[in-house]
Design a protein that fits this description.
By secondary structure, the chain is mostly helical. 80% of the residues lie in helices and 0% in strands. It starts with a helix and ends with a helix. The radius of gyration is 19 Å and the shape is globular. It has 13 helices and no strands. Helix 3 packs antiparallel against helix 11.
Length: 308
């Protein structure tokens, strides 16, 4: 099991060792990450199509994802509310930041597109499976593994070249406190949800260690535990982001730490424009640091728990 962990962590570490200073190359890496995510989610959909009793399995996946999301939210929200009271962090004025989307539909579009890719993969698997049989699903699984290794290397390179110095991260006590609280309460939720889902304690921890990074959690868990649980992780973390879009405008003025923290790893990218728009520019560095820490923690934690 530890050998498997090292095999998957190796490309992440190799990518982190590569410094990139050319803006065009960084842009290519970012596009490569996005393309890899779409390819792997498409292949995950193909894998779902290969399950016996597909309708029953999808129904089970939806029930498990709802149970996991409910337990996680019931752990995250009180913990972040308590932290909000302790920190006394307040958002600035609600002036709209230039470039921030003014439509929640625009912010949700990218998330919903990923759901569409999974559905497209299921349809492609059903159609292709009728022609190629089990060979299609075996090839899809092998291809997904190789694309996963490439994705991890690119993600490691992104983290290395994010422009976020370690000193700046550690000195931002608000971002560090929010990330720590979100991570601890999410892992507690994983322990509580594991018996409900019929999982071991380590698998339960892995399921909630995505911290909202739904594309990566789905890929890593699907690779180790199968497409069904990969789908559960995907929809659990995706639901976190969707709820964050609704909570941020409502809570950021009075409970800034809760509003910033609930989005988890997405607070440095997908939910950041909404945080900017409704919380002001003062919230941006806090959100970026919190999201960066959670993004840095998520891959090794998921892989570690899956190796136990």
């Amino acid at each position: 099991m530890l050998t498997g962990l090292l095999i998957v962590l190796l490309p992440l570490l190799l990518g982190y060792l590569v410094p990139v200073r050319h803006a065009g190359l960084l842009g290519g890496i970012n596009r490569g990450v996005n393309a890899s995510v779409y390819v792997i989610l498409l292949l995950m959909g193909v894998g779902l199509a290969g399950l016996d009793d597909l309708a029953g399995q999808l129904s089970r996946m939806g029930g498990q994802a709802l149970a996991l999301f409910t337990v996680t939210a019931l752990c995250n929200l009180p913990a972040l509310w308590w932290l909000s009271r302790r920190l006394g962090l307040s958002a600035g004025n609600s002036t709209v930041v230039a470039g921030a989307p003014t439509s929640k539909l625009a912010a949700l579009g990218g998330s919903l597109a990923l759901v569409g890719v999974v559905i497209l993969g299921v349809v492609a698997g059903l159609v292709g499976g009728a022609w190629l049989g089990e060979a299609l699903f075996l090839r899809a699984e092998t291809l997904a593994e190789w694309v996963l290794y490439a994705l991890l290397a690119l993600i490691g390179c992104q983290l290395r070249n994010s422009g976020m110095p370690l000193k700046q991260i550690l000195l931002n006590r608000f971002g560090l406190a929010i990330a720590t609280t979100l991570a601890a309460s999410s892992l507690l939720a994983g322990l509580l949800a594991a018996p409900l889902l019929g999982l071991s304690w380590s698998e339960g921890l892995a399921m909630t260690a995505g911290f909202g990074w739904y594309s990566l959690s789905a890929i890593l868990i699907g690779d180790q535990l199968g497409p069904l649980l990969g789908g559960v992780a995907f929809f659990n973390d995706l639901a976190r982001e969707l709820l964050a879009f609704l909570l941020i405008p409502l809570l950021i003025r009075r409970h800034a730490a809760l509003a910033i923290g609930y989005g988890g790893a997405t607070s440095m990218d997908f939910t950041l424009p909404v945080i900017q728009q409704h919380g002001g520019v003062a919230c941006v560095p806090i959100a970026v640091v919190s999201g960066f820490i959670l993004s840095l923690l998520s891959p090794p934690l998921i892989l570690f728990f899956l190796s136990l």
